[in-house]
């Protein structure tokens, strides 16, 4: 309770509510429509609800699970009126979302014996990797941690510049090399520097890539192997960043990335300004990999720790 109580303060809840505004509006109008004019939860309501969830980007797999659970509850409780449906939905949705086994990250603490904690950030082009790294670095720094960023996206000069700007904004150091140099060499340098400086966290940025480009996926494996020469257990975290505003596309990307690389955590960005936030439910249910953070804006403070209870609560709260 202590941890959550502290992190999920009023400010976090407000930015979550605000970030989910468009999704909430869409989600709600659909659910309200699904039960309009009905008093009990019958077959027709369930059908409508199923359709509402699918069109709210919850995805078929996850929707089917939710509907099955609601059906079961309705059978058990015999008579469920539509007024109770929101509550029931909220409970059943929360129950199928994955929680991270370890909760340290909610406090931006480093797990025992994992210093420097090495995070490798991966994903498709333009999903928000570099921005998420900047926000993460800010949060770790706020928690009193020493952070080093590694600019292993050497594909474009602008990529290194962008991460450099974030490092200055946050006030953390950065390891970089010339554009076009070997990304694994930059990753190695970053981890080596983190060890030398006794830093707490090293966050490595990578170039955007598609899962079906074999040579680019091999490059990720190489980064991993090279880092392991310094710390055998590293990277401690491989963070897949997904753009929530792409809806089911983000689910597809997750599927492909998870199949080809050892993803251990997920961040979902750009939930502000999209009505497709229901996709978070699909991702947090389907992959058994914890969604750790969500992005609700471009600014340094626009990263929120994903907490399934708070997320579902915000989703169902209108106004
Ligand atoms: N509205 C909004 N914009 C975001 C969010 N996260 C990132 N962005 C924006 O998305 C755009 C792409 O972000 P980057 O961080 O450069 O994405 P990237 O994955 O590093 O891109 P590449 O390095 O080109 O693959 C930028 O304009 C960011 O400001 C978010 O949570 N909300
Ligand atoms: Mg980038």
Task: Please sum up the structure shown.
With 319 residues, the chain is of the alpha/beta class.
Structure description:
- The structure is a single chain.
- With about 325 residues, the chain is of the alpha/beta class.
- The protein is about 50% helix and about 15% strand.
- α4 packs antiparallel against α5.
- The structure holds guanosine-5'-triphosphate and magnesium ion.
Question: What characteristics describe this protein?
Answer:
319 residues, alpha/beta, 8-stranded mixed β-sheet, binds guanosine-5'-triphosphate, binds magnesium ion
Q: In which range does the helix fraction lie?
A: 40-55%
Main sheet makeup = 8 strands, mixed
Radius of gyration: 21 Å
Q: Pairing-aware structural class of the strands and helices? A: alpha/beta
Query: What's the tally of helices?
Result: 13
Backbone shape: elongated
Give the end-to-end Cα distance, rounded to a whole number of Å.
26 Å
Strand tally is 8
Ligands (ions, cofactors included): guanosine-5'-triphosphate, magnesium ion
Low-confidence stretches are 1-5
Sequence of strands across the biggest β-sheet: 3-2-4-1-5-6-7-8
The percent range for strand residues is 5-15%
The averaged pLDDT comes out at: 92
Tell me the series of helices and strands, N- to C-terminal: HHHHHHEHEHEHEHEHEHEEH
Query: What oligomeric assembly is this protein in?
Result: single chain
């Amino acid at each position: 309770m202590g941890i959550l109580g502290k992190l999920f303060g009023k400010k976090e809840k407000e930015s979550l509510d605000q970030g989910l505004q468009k999704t909430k509006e869409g989600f709600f109008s659909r659910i309200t429509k699904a039960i309009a004019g009905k008093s009990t939860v019958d077959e027709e309501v369930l059908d409508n609800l199923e359709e509402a969830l699918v069109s709210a980007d919850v995805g078929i797999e996850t929707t089917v699970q939710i509907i099955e659970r609601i059906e079961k509850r309705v059978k058990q409780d015999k008579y469920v009126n539509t007024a109770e449906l929101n509550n029931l939905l909220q409970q059943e949705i929360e129950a199928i979302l994955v929680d991270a086994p370890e909760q340290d990250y909610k406090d931006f603490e480093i797990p025992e014996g994992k210093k420097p904690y090495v995070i490798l950030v991966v994903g498709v082009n333009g999903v928000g990797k570099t921005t998420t790294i900047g926000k993460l670095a800010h949060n770790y720094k706020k928690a009193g941690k020493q952070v080093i960023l590694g600019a292993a996206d050497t594909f474009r000069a602008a990529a290194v510049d962008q991460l450099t700007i974030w490092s200055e904004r946050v006030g953390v150091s950065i390891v970089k090399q010339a554009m076009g140099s070997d990304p694994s060499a930059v990753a190695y340098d970053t981890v080596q520097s983190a060890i030398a400086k006794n830093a707490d966290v090293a966050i490595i940025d990578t170039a955007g890539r598609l899962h079906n480009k074999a040579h680019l996926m091999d490059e990720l494996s190489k980064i991993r192997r090279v880092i392991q020469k310094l710390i055998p257990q590293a990277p401690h975290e491989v963070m897949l960043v997904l753009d929530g505003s792409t809806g089911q596309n983000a689910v597809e990307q997750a599927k492909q990335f998870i199949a080809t690389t050892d993803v251990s955590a997920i961040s979902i960005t750009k939930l502000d300004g999209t009505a497709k936030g229901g996709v978070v439910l699909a991702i947090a249910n389907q992959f058994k990999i914890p969604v750790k953070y969500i992005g609700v804006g471009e600014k340094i403070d626009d990263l929120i720790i994903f907490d399934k209870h708070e997320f579902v609560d915000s989703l169902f709260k209108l106004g």
